[in-house]
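Project standup — Tuesday

K.O.: blocked on the structure for the chain from last sprint. Re-posting the sequence here as requested.
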Amino acid sequence: MSKPIVAIVGRPNVGKSTLFNRLAGQRLSIVSETAGTTRDRLYADADFAGREFTVVDTGGLALNVRADLPGTPAAMLAGVRAQAEMAIQEADVIVFVVDVQEGPSPDDFEIAGILRSSSKPVFLVVNKVDNEARRLEAVEFYQLGLGEPMPISALHGVGTGDLLDLIVEHLPEESSGEQSTIPQLAIVGRPNVGKSSLLNAILGEERALVSDIPGTTRDAVDTELAWNGEPVILIDTAGLRRRGHIAPGLEKYSSLRAVRAIQRSDVALLLLDAVDGVMAQDQHVAQYILAEGKGVVIVVNKWDLVEKETRTMEDYTRRVRSALDFISYAPIVFVSAKTHQRVRQVIDKALEVRKAWQMRVPTSELNELLRESTEAHAPAGKGKRTLKFLYATQTDVAPPTFVFFVNDRRLVHFSYERYLVNRLRERWGFDGTPLKMIFRTRRSEPKRA
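H.V.: unblocked you, prediction finished:
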Protein backbone atom coordinates (compact mmCIF):
# COMPACT_ATOMS: atom_id res chain seq x y z
CA MET A 1 0.00 0.00 0.00
CA SER A 2 1.25 3.49 -0.76
CA LYS A 3 1.83 5.92 2.08
CA PRO A 4 0.06 9.29 2.30
CA ILE A 5 1.99 12.04 0.52
CA VAL A 6 2.67 15.41 2.13
CA ALA A 7 3.80 17.81 -0.60
CA ILE A 8 5.72 20.99 0.20
CA VAL A 9 4.89 23.55 -2.49
CA GLY A 10 5.59 27.23 -3.11
CA ARG A 11 7.58 29.53 -5.33
CA PRO A 12 11.39 29.29 -5.51
CA ASN A 13 13.67 30.34 -2.64
CA VAL A 14 11.05 30.44 0.11
CA GLY A 15 12.74 27.66 2.08
CA LYS A 16 10.91 24.52 0.92
CA SER A 17 14.02 22.35 0.93
CA THR A 18 15.08 23.72 4.31
CA LEU A 19 11.69 22.78 5.73
CA PHE A 20 11.93 19.35 4.12
CA ASN A 21 15.34 18.76 5.68
CA ARG A 22 14.10 20.02 9.05
CA LEU A 23 11.10 17.68 9.06
CA ALA A 24 13.02 14.70 7.75
CA GLY A 25 16.12 15.25 9.85
CA GLN A 26 14.87 16.01 13.34
CA ARG A 27 11.22 15.62 14.18
CA LEU A 28 10.72 12.49 12.10
CA SER A 29 11.96 8.94 12.51
CA ILE A 30 13.24 8.07 9.05
CA VAL A 31 12.09 4.69 7.78
CA SER A 32 13.86 4.86 4.45
CA GLU A 33 15.47 7.60 2.42
CA THR A 34 17.03 7.90 -0.99
CA ALA A 35 20.81 7.96 -0.97
CA GLY A 36 22.84 11.05 -1.75
CA THR A 37 23.33 14.59 -0.59
CA THR A 38 20.52 16.84 0.57
CA ARG A 39 19.95 18.32 -2.85
CA ASP A 40 19.62 14.84 -4.31
CA ARG A 41 16.71 13.91 -2.06
CA LEU A 42 13.23 14.12 -3.49
CA TYR A 43 11.33 12.38 -0.72
CA ALA A 44 11.70 10.78 2.70
CA ASP A 45 9.51 8.03 4.08
CA ALA A 46 8.84 8.94 7.67
CA ASP A 47 7.01 8.09 10.87
CA PHE A 48 5.64 10.71 13.25
CA ALA A 49 3.28 10.05 16.15
CA GLY A 50 2.80 6.51 14.91
CA ARG A 51 1.76 7.48 11.36
CA GLU A 52 3.86 6.68 8.32
CA PHE A 53 3.83 9.08 5.38
CA THR A 54 6.03 10.46 2.63
CA VAL A 55 7.35 14.02 2.77
CA VAL A 56 8.01 15.40 -0.70
CA ASP A 57 10.26 18.31 -1.58
CA THR A 58 8.83 19.71 -4.82
CA GLY A 59 10.19 22.26 -7.25
CA GLY A 60 9.40 25.95 -7.15
CA LEU A 61 6.18 27.12 -8.76
CA ALA A 62 6.92 30.41 -10.50
CA LEU A 63 5.64 32.63 -13.27
CA ASN A 64 9.16 33.94 -13.93
CA VAL A 65 7.49 37.15 -15.14
CA ARG A 66 4.95 39.30 -13.36
CA ALA A 67 1.36 38.37 -14.17
CA ASP A 68 0.35 42.04 -14.01
CA LEU A 69 2.83 43.12 -16.69
CA PRO A 70 1.88 43.23 -20.38
CA GLY A 71 3.14 40.42 -22.55
CA THR A 72 3.02 37.66 -19.95
CA PRO A 73 2.87 34.43 -22.00
CA ALA A 74 -0.42 32.62 -21.50
CA ALA A 75 1.41 29.30 -21.70
CA MET A 76 3.50 30.30 -18.69
CA LEU A 77 0.40 31.01 -16.62
CA ALA A 78 -1.11 27.73 -17.78
CA GLY A 79 2.07 25.93 -16.80
CA VAL A 80 1.89 27.24 -13.24
CA ARG A 81 -1.72 26.13 -12.98
CA ALA A 82 -0.92 22.66 -14.36
CA GLN A 83 1.94 22.21 -11.88
CA ALA A 84 -0.15 23.27 -8.89
CA GLU A 85 -3.09 21.13 -9.97
CA MET A 86 -0.88 18.06 -10.32
CA ALA A 87 0.54 18.68 -6.83
CA ILE A 88 -3.02 18.85 -5.52
CA GLN A 89 -3.97 15.60 -7.24
CA GLU A 90 -0.99 13.64 -5.93
CA ALA A 91 -0.76 14.95 -2.37
CA ASP A 92 -2.95 14.01 0.56
CA VAL A 93 -1.83 17.08 2.53
CA ILE A 94 -0.31 20.26 1.06
CA VAL A 95 2.09 22.58 2.86
CA PHE A 96 2.20 25.92 1.04
CA VAL A 97 5.38 27.81 1.98
CA VAL A 98 5.71 31.59 1.62
CA ASP A 99 8.48 34.03 2.59
CA VAL A 100 7.79 36.64 5.30
CA GLN A 101 10.74 38.75 4.18
CA GLU A 102 9.30 39.31 0.71
CA GLY A 103 5.62 39.47 1.64
CA PRO A 104 2.76 38.18 -0.55
CA SER A 105 3.87 38.05 -4.20
CA PRO A 106 1.89 37.69 -7.45
CA ASP A 107 3.08 34.07 -7.64
CA ASP A 108 1.74 33.43 -4.12
CA PHE A 109 -1.68 34.78 -5.10
CA GLU A 110 -1.71 32.64 -8.27
CA ILE A 111 -0.83 29.47 -6.38
CA ALA A 112 -3.21 30.26 -3.52
CA GLY A 113 -6.07 30.71 -5.97
CA ILE A 114 -5.58 27.19 -7.24
CA LEU A 115 -5.12 25.70 -3.77
CA ARG A 116 -8.33 27.33 -2.50
CA SER A 117 -10.33 25.22 -4.95
CA SER A 118 -8.80 22.03 -3.57
CA SER A 119 -10.61 19.67 -1.25
CA LYS A 120 -7.24 18.65 0.22
CA PRO A 121 -6.00 20.03 3.57
CA VAL A 122 -3.75 23.03 2.83
CA PHE A 123 -1.53 24.63 5.48
CA LEU A 124 -0.20 28.11 4.80
CA VAL A 125 3.27 28.26 6.30
CA VAL A 126 5.05 31.61 6.59
CA ASN A 127 8.77 30.84 6.70
CA LYS A 128 11.79 32.76 8.03
CA VAL A 129 9.87 34.10 11.05
CA ASP A 130 12.69 34.24 13.58
CA ASN A 131 11.73 37.30 15.66
CA GLU A 132 8.63 39.06 16.99
CA ALA A 133 8.62 41.76 14.32
CA ARG A 134 8.43 39.16 11.54
CA ARG A 135 5.73 37.30 13.46
CA LEU A 136 3.61 40.41 13.23
CA GLU A 137 4.39 40.76 9.52
CA ALA A 138 3.10 37.23 8.90
CA VAL A 139 -0.50 38.43 9.23
CA GLU A 140 -0.16 40.02 5.76
CA PHE A 141 -0.63 36.55 4.28
CA TYR A 142 -4.27 36.45 5.41
CA GLN A 143 -4.78 38.15 2.01
CA LEU A 144 -4.18 34.80 0.30
CA GLY A 145 -7.49 33.49 1.60
CA LEU A 146 -6.14 30.22 2.97
CA GLY A 147 -6.98 30.78 6.60
CA GLU A 148 -4.61 31.52 9.46
CA PRO A 149 -0.93 31.72 8.45
CA MET A 150 1.40 29.54 10.52
CA PRO A 151 4.67 31.37 11.28
CA ILE A 152 7.74 29.13 11.40
CA SER A 153 11.48 29.19 10.97
CA ALA A 154 12.52 26.11 9.02
CA LEU A 155 16.17 26.99 9.59
CA HIS A 156 15.84 27.08 13.39
CA GLY A 157 12.99 24.59 13.77
CA VAL A 158 10.59 27.08 15.34
CA GLY A 159 6.97 25.98 14.88
CA THR A 160 7.76 22.80 12.94
CA GLY A 161 6.52 20.55 15.73
CA ASP A 162 3.09 22.21 15.69
CA LEU A 163 3.05 21.88 11.91
CA LEU A 164 3.71 18.14 12.13
CA ASP A 165 0.90 17.71 14.66
CA LEU A 166 -1.49 19.33 12.19
CA ILE A 167 -0.19 17.26 9.28
CA VAL A 168 -0.69 13.96 11.13
CA GLU A 169 -4.13 15.05 12.31
CA HIS A 170 -5.24 15.59 8.70
CA LEU A 171 -3.72 12.50 7.08
CA PRO A 172 -6.33 10.18 5.53
CA GLU A 173 -7.55 7.28 7.61
CA GLU A 174 -5.30 4.26 7.52
CA SER A 175 -6.46 1.45 5.28
CA SER A 176 -6.86 -2.09 6.51
CA GLY A 177 -3.40 -2.83 5.09
CA GLU A 178 -4.63 -5.94 3.28
CA GLN A 179 -2.43 -6.78 0.36
CA SER A 180 -3.95 -7.08 -3.10
CA THR A 181 -4.15 -10.64 -4.36
CA ILE A 182 -3.51 -9.40 -7.90
CA PRO A 183 0.20 -9.01 -8.71
CA GLN A 184 1.12 -5.34 -9.25
CA LEU A 185 4.16 -4.70 -11.42
CA ALA A 186 5.52 -1.17 -11.88
CA ILE A 187 7.54 -0.37 -15.00
CA VAL A 188 10.09 2.22 -13.88
CA GLY A 189 13.28 3.82 -15.12
CA ARG A 190 14.77 7.06 -16.27
CA PRO A 191 13.16 8.86 -19.23
CA ASN A 192 13.35 7.43 -22.74
CA VAL A 193 14.44 3.88 -21.94
CA GLY A 194 11.31 2.41 -23.51
CA LYS A 195 8.84 1.92 -20.65
CA SER A 196 5.71 2.60 -22.70
CA SER A 197 7.13 0.58 -25.61
CA LEU A 198 7.65 -2.39 -23.28
CA LEU A 199 4.09 -2.08 -21.98
CA ASN A 200 2.76 -2.06 -25.54
CA ALA A 201 4.89 -5.07 -26.48
CA ILE A 202 3.54 -6.97 -23.48
CA LEU A 203 -0.04 -6.04 -24.24
CA GLY A 204 0.35 -6.63 -27.94
CA GLU A 205 -1.50 -3.44 -28.70
CA GLU A 206 -1.01 0.30 -28.56
CA ARG A 207 -2.57 1.17 -25.22
CA ALA A 208 0.16 3.56 -24.07
CA LEU A 209 1.57 6.57 -25.89
CA VAL A 210 5.01 5.86 -27.38
CA SER A 211 7.31 8.75 -28.24
CA ASP A 212 11.01 9.46 -28.62
CA ILE A 213 10.57 12.59 -26.48
CA PRO A 214 11.69 11.92 -22.88
CA GLY A 215 8.91 12.44 -20.38
CA THR A 216 5.95 11.76 -22.68
CA THR A 217 4.29 9.61 -20.03
CA ARG A 218 3.20 11.95 -17.24
CA ASP A 219 0.88 9.74 -15.24
CA ALA A 220 1.18 6.36 -13.60
CA VAL A 221 -1.31 4.31 -15.63
CA ASP A 222 -2.67 0.96 -14.45
CA THR A 223 -3.47 -1.70 -17.04
CA GLU A 224 -4.96 -5.05 -16.07
CA LEU A 225 -4.30 -8.04 -18.29
CA ALA A 226 -4.71 -11.80 -18.13
CA TRP A 227 -1.40 -13.66 -17.98
CA ASN A 228 -1.63 -17.43 -18.34
CA GLY A 229 -5.23 -17.12 -17.23
CA GLU A 230 -4.45 -15.06 -14.11
CA PRO A 231 -4.91 -11.28 -13.67
CA VAL A 232 -1.84 -9.03 -13.51
CA ILE A 233 -1.73 -5.25 -13.13
CA LEU A 234 0.98 -3.32 -14.98
CA ILE A 235 1.76 0.23 -13.89
CA ASP A 236 3.48 2.39 -16.52
CA THR A 237 5.16 5.43 -14.99
CA ALA A 238 6.87 8.63 -16.00
CA GLY A 239 10.67 8.52 -16.07
CA LEU A 240 12.56 9.14 -12.86
CA ARG A 241 15.71 11.25 -12.80
CA ARG A 242 18.15 12.26 -10.10
CA ARG A 243 16.62 15.26 -8.41
CA GLY A 244 19.25 17.66 -9.71
CA HIS A 245 18.28 16.63 -13.25
CA ILE A 246 14.51 16.96 -12.86
CA ALA A 247 13.29 19.85 -14.96
CA PRO A 248 11.06 22.43 -13.28
CA GLY A 249 7.39 21.86 -13.86
CA LEU A 250 5.41 18.77 -14.66
CA GLU A 251 8.36 16.36 -14.70
CA LYS A 252 8.96 16.85 -10.97
CA TYR A 253 5.38 15.97 -10.13
CA SER A 254 5.51 13.06 -12.56
CA SER A 255 8.38 11.71 -10.47
CA LEU A 256 6.11 11.79 -7.44
CA ARG A 257 3.65 9.58 -9.29
CA ALA A 258 6.42 7.12 -10.10
CA VAL A 259 7.47 7.08 -6.44
CA ARG A 260 3.88 6.33 -5.44
CA ALA A 261 3.71 3.62 -8.12
CA ILE A 262 6.81 1.94 -6.68
CA GLN A 263 5.31 2.13 -3.20
CA ARG A 264 2.10 0.36 -4.19
CA SER A 265 3.74 -2.23 -6.43
CA ASP A 266 4.87 -5.72 -5.52
CA VAL A 267 7.69 -5.89 -8.05
CA ALA A 268 9.40 -3.09 -9.96
CA LEU A 269 10.63 -3.71 -13.50
CA LEU A 270 13.75 -1.54 -13.68
CA LEU A 271 14.38 -0.69 -17.33
CA LEU A 272 17.88 0.06 -18.59
CA ASP A 273 18.95 1.25 -22.02
CA ALA A 274 21.29 -1.38 -23.49
CA VAL A 275 23.09 1.23 -25.60
CA ASP A 276 23.72 3.67 -22.73
CA GLY A 277 24.49 1.06 -20.08
CA VAL A 278 23.93 1.74 -16.38
CA MET A 279 23.92 5.47 -15.68
CA ALA A 280 23.79 7.45 -12.46
CA GLN A 281 20.05 8.00 -12.93
CA ASP A 282 19.51 4.25 -13.18
CA GLN A 283 21.30 3.75 -9.88
CA HIS A 284 19.10 6.39 -8.30
CA VAL A 285 15.90 4.69 -9.49
CA ALA A 286 17.21 1.41 -8.07
CA GLN A 287 17.69 3.19 -4.74
CA TYR A 288 13.99 4.12 -4.74
CA ILE A 289 13.07 0.47 -5.23
CA LEU A 290 15.46 -0.78 -2.54
CA ALA A 291 14.31 1.86 -0.05
CA GLU A 292 10.72 0.66 -0.43
CA GLY A 293 11.65 -3.01 0.02
CA LYS A 294 10.13 -4.09 -3.30
CA GLY A 295 10.98 -7.02 -5.50
CA VAL A 296 12.90 -6.08 -8.62
CA VAL A 297 13.70 -7.41 -12.09
CA ILE A 298 16.37 -5.62 -14.14
CA VAL A 299 15.19 -5.37 -17.74
CA VAL A 300 17.84 -4.41 -20.31
CA ASN A 301 15.89 -2.97 -23.23
CA LYS A 302 17.00 -2.24 -26.81
CA TRP A 303 19.17 -5.37 -26.84
CA ASP A 304 18.64 -5.55 -30.61
CA LEU A 305 20.82 -2.44 -31.00
CA VAL A 306 23.87 -4.00 -29.33
CA GLU A 307 26.48 -5.68 -31.53
CA LYS A 308 26.89 -9.27 -30.34
CA GLU A 309 29.97 -11.40 -29.84
CA THR A 310 30.42 -14.75 -28.10
CA ARG A 311 30.37 -13.42 -24.52
CA THR A 312 28.49 -10.15 -24.99
CA MET A 313 25.62 -11.02 -22.64
CA GLU A 314 27.95 -12.38 -19.94
CA ASP A 315 30.19 -9.31 -20.09
CA TYR A 316 27.20 -6.98 -20.02
CA THR A 317 25.72 -8.84 -17.04
CA ARG A 318 28.99 -8.42 -15.16
CA ARG A 319 28.98 -4.66 -15.77
CA VAL A 320 25.37 -4.33 -14.64
CA ARG A 321 26.08 -6.34 -11.49
CA SER A 322 29.04 -4.13 -10.70
CA ALA A 323 27.11 -0.89 -11.14
CA LEU A 324 24.04 -2.13 -9.26
CA ASP A 325 25.79 -4.25 -6.65
CA PHE A 326 23.34 -3.17 -3.92
CA ILE A 327 20.58 -5.14 -5.73
CA SER A 328 22.81 -8.03 -6.79
CA TYR A 329 19.94 -10.43 -6.06
CA ALA A 330 17.88 -9.02 -8.97
CA PRO A 331 17.48 -11.27 -12.04
CA ILE A 332 18.37 -9.70 -15.40
CA VAL A 333 16.35 -10.12 -18.59
CA PHE A 334 17.63 -8.87 -21.96
CA VAL A 335 14.78 -7.75 -24.22
CA SER A 336 13.83 -5.70 -27.22
CA ALA A 337 10.46 -3.99 -26.90
CA LYS A 338 10.73 -3.17 -30.61
CA THR A 339 11.13 -6.76 -31.82
CA HIS A 340 9.34 -8.35 -28.82
CA GLN A 341 12.45 -10.46 -28.12
CA ARG A 342 12.12 -12.22 -24.71
CA VAL A 343 9.31 -9.83 -23.69
CA ARG A 344 7.21 -12.66 -22.22
CA GLN A 345 10.10 -13.58 -19.92
CA VAL A 346 9.75 -10.22 -18.16
CA ILE A 347 6.32 -10.98 -16.69
CA ASP A 348 7.17 -14.64 -16.01
CA LYS A 349 10.27 -13.61 -14.09
CA ALA A 350 8.43 -10.85 -12.24
CA LEU A 351 5.80 -13.31 -11.03
CA GLU A 352 8.56 -15.64 -9.81
CA VAL A 353 10.09 -12.73 -7.90
CA ARG A 354 6.72 -11.90 -6.35
CA LYS A 355 6.46 -15.46 -5.02
CA ALA A 356 9.89 -15.11 -3.44
CA TRP A 357 8.88 -11.69 -2.05
CA GLN A 358 5.94 -13.37 -0.30
CA MET A 359 7.75 -16.57 0.73
CA ARG A 360 7.54 -17.74 4.33
CA VAL A 361 10.12 -20.16 5.76
CA PRO A 362 9.06 -22.62 8.49
CA THR A 363 10.65 -21.74 11.84
CA SER A 364 12.07 -25.23 12.32
CA GLU A 365 13.82 -25.16 8.94
CA LEU A 366 15.12 -21.64 9.55
CA ASN A 367 16.68 -22.63 12.86
CA GLU A 368 18.17 -25.75 11.32
CA LEU A 369 19.88 -23.54 8.72
CA LEU A 370 21.04 -21.20 11.49
CA ARG A 371 22.58 -24.10 13.40
CA GLU A 372 24.34 -25.41 10.29
CA SER A 373 25.59 -21.93 9.40
CA THR A 374 27.06 -21.14 12.82
CA GLU A 375 28.72 -24.57 12.99
CA ALA A 376 30.26 -24.14 9.54
CA HIS A 377 31.40 -20.60 10.23
CA ALA A 378 31.37 -19.50 13.85
CA PRO A 379 30.79 -15.77 14.42
CA ALA A 380 33.75 -13.75 15.62
CA GLY A 381 33.67 -12.11 19.02
CA LYS A 382 34.88 -8.84 20.49
CA GLY A 383 37.52 -9.25 23.13
CA LYS A 384 36.38 -11.97 25.51
CA ARG A 385 32.77 -11.78 24.33
CA THR A 386 31.45 -14.23 21.74
CA LEU A 387 28.31 -13.75 19.66
CA LYS A 388 25.75 -16.48 20.34
CA PHE A 389 22.57 -17.09 18.37
CA LEU A 390 19.62 -18.30 20.45
CA TYR A 391 17.01 -18.79 17.74
CA ALA A 392 15.46 -17.15 14.67
CA THR A 393 12.01 -16.61 13.25
CA GLN A 394 10.46 -15.02 10.17
CA THR A 395 8.11 -12.26 11.28
CA ASP A 396 6.86 -10.92 7.96
CA VAL A 397 6.79 -11.20 4.19
CA ALA A 398 6.83 -8.62 1.37
CA PRO A 399 9.77 -8.41 1.88
CA PRO A 400 10.78 -11.47 3.92
CA THR A 401 11.79 -10.26 7.37
CA PHE A 402 13.87 -12.36 9.75
CA VAL A 403 14.49 -11.73 13.45
CA PHE A 404 17.55 -13.31 15.07
CA PHE A 405 17.71 -13.39 18.87
CA VAL A 406 21.28 -13.15 20.12
CA ASN A 407 23.10 -12.62 23.40
CA ASP A 408 24.27 -9.15 22.31
CA ARG A 409 23.28 -7.61 18.99
CA ARG A 410 26.22 -5.21 19.21
CA LEU A 411 28.48 -8.19 18.45
CA VAL A 412 26.86 -8.77 15.04
CA HIS A 413 29.33 -7.68 12.37
CA PHE A 414 27.97 -6.62 8.97
CA SER A 415 30.07 -9.30 7.30
CA TYR A 416 28.37 -12.02 9.35
CA GLU A 417 24.97 -10.58 8.54
CA ARG A 418 25.91 -10.76 4.86
CA TYR A 419 27.02 -14.37 5.39
CA LEU A 420 23.62 -15.28 6.82
CA VAL A 421 21.85 -13.52 3.94
CA ASN A 422 23.89 -15.56 1.48
CA ARG A 423 23.01 -18.79 3.31
CA LEU A 424 19.31 -17.92 3.20
CA ARG A 425 19.53 -17.27 -0.52
CA GLU A 426 21.48 -20.49 -1.13
CA ARG A 427 18.78 -22.53 0.63
CA TRP A 428 15.58 -20.82 -0.51
CA GLY A 429 16.56 -18.63 -3.46
CA PHE A 430 14.70 -15.39 -2.73
CA ASP A 431 15.55 -14.21 -6.27
CA GLY A 432 14.72 -10.57 -6.85
CA THR A 433 13.68 -9.73 -3.31
CA PRO A 434 15.56 -7.91 -0.55
CA LEU A 435 15.81 -9.63 2.83
CA LYS A 436 15.28 -7.64 6.01
CA MET A 437 17.52 -8.82 8.85
CA ILE A 438 16.81 -7.79 12.45
CA PHE A 439 19.01 -8.74 15.41
CA ARG A 440 17.67 -8.48 18.94
CA THR A 441 19.40 -8.97 22.25
CA ARG A 442 17.82 -11.58 24.49
CA ARG A 443 19.20 -13.21 27.58
CA SER A 444 19.63 -16.96 27.51
CA GLU A 445 17.34 -19.01 29.68
CA PRO A 446 19.07 -19.81 33.00
CA LYS A 447 20.34 -23.35 33.30
CA ARG A 448 18.30 -25.61 35.54
CA ALA A 449 20.02 -27.42 38.36
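K.O.: great, moving the ticket to review. Confidence is low (pLDDT under 50) at residues 26-41, 64-72, 241-252. DSSP finds twelve helices and 16 strands in the chain.
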